[in-house]
Each structure stands twice: as C-alpha cells, then as structure tokens.
Write a structure and sequence with these properties.
homodimer, Nucleotidyltransferase, domain 5, alpha/beta, DNA-binding, Arc Repressor Mutant, subunit A, 15 strands, 5-stranded mixed sheet
DNA sequence: GGCATAAGTTTAGTGGGTCAACAAAATCAT
DNA sequence: ATGATTTTGTTGACCCACTAAACTTATGCC
C-alpha cells in the first residue's frame, strides 16, 4: 500500500466528483474551524468559491446534518442579514475510549467538539488482565452508546487510546509496559462484547491522540508543536500544521526510550523515562514508588526541597531530550501535557534552560514551552476526533445522494 | 502564510482548472517515475483515467517538451504497438550548486535525471571568505549556464546546497560552522555576478538535498528513511514516502548536535559530532586533525587497529543517535551517506548493534542500515531535483496555452 | 417610502472529464 | 495471403461541477 503510493507517486486520478468532494470538505472545514458562526458569503470570500457554489455545497452539508443553520442575529450593518452556519450539535458523533494506567473511560464527541456523553472509572491497572480491563471498558461503553442511539445520534465509529505501541499497519497492541500487556489483540477481545462488536475501534497511541485534542484546542494558532505526555511512561507526539505525524507504524514520539547517557560513556546510562518518568520522580522525591501524580504535585506545592530538586532534575532531563527532538524535527514549540502540565511551574524553567543552552537554532527561533490546554483526559477526546477526522476529510461519504 | 493555512484548514478552492492541473501532474509523474518507457494506455490503466483523457494530457506534455515520444519497439504480443513515452532529454533542466568544506561545484540535471553539464572544483574552504568562494562558484556556473543556453535548454531555476543552517522562511544562511560563515546573505552576494543575477538560487541544507537525490535513486523502493550525511559536520534528513521533511524552518535532521552525554550526568558531555564527526575521527584515529576523509578510508583498509577502533566507537555513537531518531520519527531504514558510505564496512555493524539493542520497536520492525546509492556529490543533484520538483508538481505552469 | 447594501438563488455558459464507437497497426490462425 | 483478433490511440456525444451575471430577498439609513 505504502509502496504502491511511492511508486505511483501518490495521488489518484481526479474526476469531476473529486472536485466536489474537495470543495465539500473545504467548506465543512471552514465551518468547523471558524471560532464563530460563518455565513455562506463568508465561506465564499474565504475560499475563493462563488456564492452559488458554496450555497449548493452547504445544502448538501445541511441535508447530511453535518452543519446547521442558526437563528439570524440582529445585523449591525446594512444589507440582508447572513444566516449563521455552525457545526451541527449532537447529530453526528464519534466515541473515544482510553485505557491508561490509573483510569479508563469513554467519551462521545460531536463534530463541534462537544462532549455528548462520558463515563470514566479510576483504578490501578498496572499489571492488569487485558480481558478483565477491556470488559470493564465495554461496560462503560454500553450505556454511552445506548444513550446516543436513543437520541438518534449517528455514530461514526470508535477509537481506543492505549499507553503503548500499537501497530497501525497490522493491528495488535505490541506492548504497553506499564499495563504489563504484550501482544494483545485488543480489537478481538473487545469484539466479544456485543455492544462493541459492530463498532470495532481503531487503536492508537495515547500521546498521539492527546496531541490531536491539543491541536484542536489550539486551532487558529500556529499548529506545529511537540506534545509531551507525561504519565507513568513518557510519550510525545509531533504535530505539524495541525496534523499528527505518526511515522511508519504509528510509533513516532517514543521519547521515553531516548538514550541520554550518564556515567562513563555515551553507550551507558539511562533513558529519559528512567530520569523523568513518574516512578523515577517518586523515587527521587522520596515518595512511595507506586504513588499517584497528585502526591508529587501536593508535595511540590508544599515546597518540599527534595521534591523540588527532583522536579528540577527531571525537567533538565526532559529539556535535553526535547532539545534532541527539536534538532531532529525542527519545531519551535513544546507543549507539556499529562502530569507535566500540573508540574509545569516546577519543571518549565529547567526545560527552557536546557533548550536554550543546547538547541543550536535557538538564537533565531527560540523554542517556546507551553502548558497543555486540552483539559482532562485529552486522549479520549483525541480518539473521538481521530474518527471524526474521516468525516471532515471525506464528507461526501456521509452526504445523501 | 503557515498560520493562514492552519486557520483555513489547508487547501484552496478547486476549480475545473485544478482538475486538469492535478491530472497533468499525475500523468507526468507516471512518465518520470517509471523505470522503463510507458504508453498512454499504461498510464490510463495505472491512474484510472480514460485513455482519451490521458491522450489529451500527454499532448500538452509533448507540446511543453516535458515528455518525448520514442521510436516504437517491436511489439511482443498482438495488437497495435504502443508509443513509448519518456522524460524529454535535455529540453528542460535545473542547475544544482554546492559549496562544501572541501569542494564546490555546479551540475545541470534534466527531467530524466541526466547530468547535462558539470563543473567541480576541489579545495579547502574552512574559514573561507564568502565573497571569494561565491565568486568562484559563479565562475563555475557561468560556462554551465552558457552551454545550456546555447543548446536551447529551458533552465527552470537554480538551487544551492550549503553545509549549515539555512532559514527557509526568511532567507539568509544563519551559520555554517565548518566554513566559518555566519549570517551571510548568500543570495545577495551571488546576485552581484551577472550570470546568476537573473537566476537567484534557493538555498537549502546539504543533507536535505543529498537525501532528495538518494530518494530518487531509490524510486520504486520503500521511500521512507533517514539519510545520514557524514562530512566534517554530521547532518541528517528525514524522507517520508519520497518527500523530504524539512521542518518548520528547514532545520530538521541536525543530529550532529544531538546530546549523547558522557561523564558525570546527562546534562554534561558531548554531541554526536564530537564523537563521530570527521575531525573527531581523525583525532581518535591518531591522524592529523585537518586531514581528508580519504586518509581514514585508506588507514582502515590497511587494517590499522587504532583506526578500526575509532571507527567502531564512532559507529556506536552514531547508532545511539540514530536510535534516538528512530524513536522520535519511526522510520525503519537508515542510509549512510557522505564519508559514512565509504566507511560503512567498518561502521555498519556497530551502528546496527546499537539500533538493535536500543530501539524498543526493533523486535517488530528491524531497522535496516543501507549504504547511499546516489553517487558522488549527491547534494548537487538533489539541489537540481529540488528545483525540478516545481515542474513536476505544477507542470501546467510550463505548458503552452 | 425610497435608496444603498449585502446575502443568497437562479440561469446560462464553460471546461474537463467519461463513455462508446471507431480507426490504426500489429500478431495469430488457417 | 488473408481475415480474425487484439491492443492502442482518437473522435464525438454527453455530463457534471464550477463560474458569471442577473435577480430576489432582507436589512439599515435618510
């Protein structure tokens, strides 16, 4: 498939239909990405299409319930008032799911990004049994899907975020170290539960999906950054112009395993995770190794010196690793997510210091370090957005003939 | 520009014309990428366009001298024999140039990838004066351009490969450590020479352009890899599905500055370049520091133990750095270029060993280590290909109305 | 109420495809 | 040799999605 693309040069023949598909997607994106409702005339002006064409396209989007007309607001200026268009609410949605080390959950999101339904269960899933955990997940998904169906919501599909390596080419979860899972056919196990049998999820890495949610939360701003997801493991995702860059198999951003080196020589020493992972942090801070992230945050807020020192050291390690990432992919923004978002006040300076010191391009393009804005459980939202992406890219498939 | 893209969602309105542009480019790519001449019917079958449409498109490409009809060869099977189509030879070309530490040169390449003209001058340009060096480059370019013009070749444009950081957004060469150049407005300096005044080159990093030549040399094969360019500095380029991934400013792949850490803690120690760069190699091998790469190759072939040990150590450092790259961008192939291509017999095993040991995804997708195949001075070829890319992507601009 | 202005719709026209029939040039079969 | 077969490339009727420009609708302003 990928090699076919490579040989043929990427891209199929464009027919008349392709034109319409392209412009339909363009129009839809315009409605979805706009911070405030837009009119047909706005879309025409922004895209370069004529108003006639936009009208025709919008009609199709309305018929498919992807877009809705709002009540006209009192116009400020002369002329016929515009009909505001916005993403349709609660008509088309996707279901994002997540299994992580200390929680699992299900979240339904519509095209406008609104959460329609949600169920989350906290717990400790280290060294858990996949069958049992996925059973619990299915139990959460059941009522969510039931309510959506009852409300007449069209469910586009489902996706599941996992804290590990998912092979996007061939399917299975290869390994999720902190769950203790290895070579688990997650889709098959979930398919045993009737509620999900008809809707097999696509799987993806937690960090990549969280980054998608973060990209959406930042739409309108420069959309290229490295998202760092600090949990028990450390994942990252590379976002370029609003698109997640997953790599050949979906395994990009595995910075937790980056070699940093310590004593002796470059070929000895630990990985980033061994310096800045949650467990390493607990240990360095003198807290119980299996504690939660909240422990560290509380201790840091209380100003405990040992904890603050541990955080500064972790921040430095993270900064070195991120400098390497910046050297490899040339991005000029880092977004701290997961536990690092909460710990940012105690980490950020150390991260910035290393970036400034090591990144050779820093004099011309300083690397900025931001805190994540996508809210709690971003990977669940991102999983839903991942599925909705299919609608955004090919709305024609969802439009009645 | 980039933010406008981000807000509008990337992509302009498609009109009827866009259809033709797209299909024209598709058809041209098919002729260019095919290992052997193709017929109109072949293109139709491969692209999904009808033969009628392909005929019309090919007529335009013929009129523009982008494609040529060859003499029919004796057909093997029944039916009217096909008219073979191939990239036109010597009708349309681009000029690639390069200034590097120990040579500079100019090379003209046509759409079929054939070298039409070439001038190379060897020398030592460490700590050189930009004005003088660029003057020499212009002196080489003069005759090349003259011959092309005399032959009636349409010159699409020029590009210049440099061993340093070129800001692709705002223009100037920021820094080329091994030339000793800093904040040089290369385009302005070259424009002072009449031959190049009308054809200002676009600038890019040497490794990125070399990787483009390598990608072309491998067309038809899986086209995702990391290209490592070992010269005095160490650069890399990330190639994904045949496209060079340059990053925000064109500064991706700066792995020479990757922190590997040595004694003490992760925040001390050296960069990859300090372990595996050409100067470091010379020093570790006990050869004069300013020697050439040929010295090392000769000594290694002679089997000198100290040299072999130095190469193994450099290979290990490179392997650690490349493992980091693989973790960040998820590619499963490394191509050794520059001096590393010549040194591959003595480095490769050490690189592979580190990759196998450190890359956590290795069990499911082993990272392969290849040797570059793009020949001598790949960045010159790549620079020309970079310019020709514009024709390949938008042939409509070069087709008479 | 009339005029200016802007949003959205209608209708004719155009460009670039498809489809099907046909012409051209070879091999194959008798 | 001659006609049947096969494949390539071309021709012309048709179709679809866009543009352009006129028209209708709905407001603000004087």
């Amino acid at each position: 498939m990928a090699s076919a693309r490579a040989t043929s040069g990427g891209g199929r023949a464009a027919r008349q239909e392709s034109l319409r598909h392209h412009n339909l997607a363009l129009t839809l994106r315009h409605v979805l990405d706009a911070p405030t409702p837009v009119s047909r005339a706005d879309i025409a002006a922004a895209t370069g299409l004529t108003r006639a064409t936009v009208s025709a396209l919008v009609d199709r989007l309305l018929a498919a319930n992807l877009v809705a007309e709002l009540e006209p607001v009192a116009a400020q200026r002369a002329g016929r008032p515009a009909v505001p268009l916005a993403p349709a609410k609660g008509t088309v949605a996707a279901v994002g799911m997540e299994v992580n080390v200390d929680y699992l959950g299900v979240r339904a999101v519509d095209l406008g990004g609104h959460v329609l339904q949600q169920r989350v269960e906290e717990g400790d899933f280290r060294g858990s049994e996949p069958e049992e955990v996925l059973g619990r997940l299915a139990a959460l998904a059941g009522p969510v899907l039931a309510v959506l169906s009852a409300d007449g919501v069209v469910i586009v599909g489902t996706a599941l975020a996992l804290p590990g390596l998912v092979d996007s080419v061939t399917g299975p979860l290869r390994v999720a170290p902190n769950l203790g899972w290895r070579d688990v056919d997650v889709v098959a196990l979930l398919a045993e539960h009737p509620v999900l049998a008809a809707m097999p999820p696509r799987l993806a890495n937690e960090a990549n999906l969280a980054a998608r949610a973060e990209a959406r939360a930042r739409r309108g701003e420069p959309a290229s950054f490295v998202y760092v997801s600090g949990e028990v493991g450390i994942g990252a995702a590379i976002v370029l112009d609003g698109r997640i860059f997953g790599g050949r198999h979906g395994w990009s951003g595995e910075i937790g395993h980056m070699a940093l080196g310590t004593a002796g020589a470059f070929d000895e020493g630990g990985t980033l995770e061994s310096y800045a992972g949650q467990d390493a942090l607990h240990e360095a801070a003198g807290l119980p190794r299996t504690g939660s992230a909240a422990d560290i945050v509380a201790a840091a807020r209380a100003g405990e010196p040992r904890v603050l020192a541990a955080l500064e050291r972790a921040g430095a390690a993270l900064g070195v690793a991120l400098a390497n990432v910046v050297h490899v992919v040339d991005v000029d923004r880092v977004v701290l997510g997961g536990i690092y978002a909460d710990l940012a006040p105690y980490l950020r300076d150390a991260v910035l210091a290393q970036l400034e010191r090591r990144v050779i391009t820093a004099p011309w393009a300083a690397v900025e370090v931001d805190v994540a804005r996508a809210g709690r459980y971003p990977a669940m939202t991102g999983a839903a957005l991942e599925v909705l992406q299919a609608v955004v890219e090919e709305p024609a498939a969802w439009v009645p003939a």
